[in-house]
# Entry
Amino acid sequence: MTLAEAAFGRQTLVKQIALVLGGSLFIALAAQVSVPMYPVPMTLQTLAILIVGLCYGARLAAVTLVVYLAEGAMGLPVFANAGNGAAFFGPTAGFLVGFVFMAWLVGYAADRGWTRSAGGAAVACLVAAALLYIPGLAWPMSLANAFGFTGSWVGQDFVAYYWAYFAKPFLFGDAVKAAIAAIIVVGTTQALKFDPTKS
# Structure
């Protein structure tokens, strides 16, 4: 049983749809809290994704992120800085696609009771945040070029460009977001007196 199930009861189809739409809206709003950086902006988007994953569990969290990406693909301004589907052709496309796995992985940990402690939840969030860099960096380093994309962000040096602009500035923030997400979800879990290990 996830925190969402404990808070809202048995997950009917109507409740699941409401949670998915609510979760995607939450992520979209968090994405607008942005520190202008190029080529990758710093936002609260990943914090929202971690919270959704910890609260929803693997399946529902992954569906929520698929819906979120679909909203952007349809032209809704749900990505950072009111971006939409055009972001799938830019430097952050790998991160966007990786968000689905990120949410699923954190949700998977939640499904197995990692939210019973802030430490366990934070570790799950940190692992998911670290793995997000695989698709996030693979896209501009090689995949974009393989698909015929060109731009100043394609095919650059790893240390001088990708590490400096795509990874290093975000590492401290990843740790802080992991801790915040864990504290929020575990604190709420304890407030509801819900033990995820006894579901």
The longest strand covers residues 34-35.
